[in-house]
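Here is one chain, start to finish.
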Amino acid sequence: MRIFNFRAELDRFIDALYKIREEIDKVGEGKYDKLDNPLKNAPHTYEHVISSNWKHKYSREEAAFPVPWIAARGKHWPSCGRIDNAYGDRHLICTCPDITEYL
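Its structure:
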């Protein structure tokens, strides 16, 4: 049985926030393109990262493993990328069958 380590999870969360801030700064400094950067294109699916058609200006490693502990700990791969950018993030649509179909 794996014991949940709250402190370790908080540390990883803080690392992720620092990494996001670092990526924002890189966009601001011009090191990352404003339209093609790891933040704008996140999340990167497994299929996207291993595809032979990689046209981004940043590396696959930056996309898949932005912080070192992800590779060592095992990564959760999202099943799909963003849908309709921020609109899709904020306006979720339930595709479940109607409740009467369960009766």
